[in-house]
Amino acid sequence: MPDESRFGRMDEVNDMSKTPSTPFSNGTEFEVFKYNWCYRCRAHKERPDGFPEFPENGGCPIEDATENARFDISKFPSDMLLTLRDATTDELICWHYCLRFDSPDEDVQFRYFDMLKRAMFKEKGR
Hints:
alpha+beta; 3-stranded antiparallel beta sheet; 14% strand
């Protein structure tokens, strides 16, 4: 799990509604998710066949669950991927926000939390 103490905590994000994400609607949406989250995360490990490493071998349980959801939709990790909306305007802020995202790049990790903070305060003029 990411060290939230570096930049902020999800439980401090009070001006947002947080709901479990729904499964990806198609393969493109899934690939965009992997590009934006998995490939930038230190938990991402690939096997030689190109599939994510199994969690028992050090792979990410979110990545494993999203792969398995292609065959059994009940495996989709809705408890670890959230849809974030502005609680006042219901404006979409982030579709599949991964709670386990942990970038080895400090700048990327900072932008991950900063994106939320800017989205939270833009309507409020803070």
